[in-house]
Amino acid sequence: MRCLVLGAGGFLGGHVRARLDADPGVTVEAADRSRADLLGGGLDELLRQAAPDVVVNCAGVTGGDEVAMARGNVVAVANLLAALDRLPKRARLVHLGSAAEYGVVPPGLPVTESQAAHPVSAYGMSKLAGTELVLAARRRGRDATVLRIFNPLGPGTPETLLPGRLVAVLRRAASTGERARVGSLDGHRDFVDARDVASAIRAVALAEKPLPGVLNVGSGRATALRELAAMAAVVVGVAPPLEDAAGSARSPSVTWQQADITAAIAALGWRPSFAPADSIRDMILVPA
């Protein structure tokens, strides 16, 4: 099987590439944003040369203004779908969506794929628009599945994500001797290891039976943010951070996220294997 990974230079894309590279039955063509800018030219030529059986779209925009996110998460997806339609060879599309598409969900309950999507951030709105484009193409006959990724972490987690920021401020505290400071750690999130995400993507890429259009990829557990910070502090060897700094403006109204992963387990035979404590430990101790 020939697999093209778009966005292979990113955090999740790098883990996906490594997981697929480890499979002797898969030939991987990896493209970072410099090679496969979905907003510019060259995409048709890239697809033609790669001749993929499967395209995994890990490319996207997580920050910036609304225009940047619309271009990176909506227009880029439309361009990719159009280019796939022009490809003589039919290729499966595995597209990475986001838990941010769901928006505010009832506290204490795991969210299923049937939950109505009401994103509250520009990022969530742009990701939902991209998902809807993929699902529309699926209704027209495109072999495509969207994986709604919850909160990824693990080796190489960037500081743009909460676990990466936590580890970075704790490490700075260890080097300076000053107490780490972060924003409010109220709330719960479903943290899923990037290596588990990569395994789920591999399962979709290799699936021989029809799959649902949308599948949640998470740990199936809600972890308190304060608990995650305490785990990281223990590994770094410093006190837990004080919560008196400016926090992230990204989806502050979302206080609870927990994925129901029943559908992914049934469809893929996949289960997450890393607990949050394992992921935090490896973030700090394993080279990226």
Can you give me a brief rundown of this structure?
By secondary structure, the chain is α/β, with parallel strands linked by helices. Helices cover 40% and strands 14% of the residues.
Could you describe the 3D structure shown?
The chain has a domain of 196 residues: Rossmann fold. The mean pLDDT is 93. With 288 residues, it is α/β, with parallel strands linked by helices. The longest helix has 21 residues. 40% of the residues lie in helices and 14% in strands. The strands form three sheets. The protein has a six-stranded parallel beta sheet, with helices on both faces.
Topology:
Elements: E1 2-6, H1 11-21, E2 27-31, H2 43-50, E3 54-57, H3 66-86, E4 92-98, H4 122-139, E5 144-149, E6 151-153, H5 162-176, E7 188-189, E8 191-193, H6 194-206, E9 214-217, E10 223-224, H7 225-236, H8 262-268, H9 276-285
Parallel strand pairs: 1-2, 1-3, 3-4, 4-5, 5-9, 6-8
Antiparallel strand pairs: 7-10
Unreliable runs, pLDDT <50, ≥5 residues?
none
The number of helical segments is 9
Query: How would you name the CATH homologous superfamily of the domain at 2-153 and 192-220 and 260-274?
Result: NAD(P)-binding Rossmann-like Domain
CATH topology of the domain at 2-153 and 192-220 and 260-274: Rossmann fold
Distance between the termini: 27 Å
Report the CATH architecture of the domain at 2-153 and 192-220 and 260-274.
3-Layer(aba) Sandwich
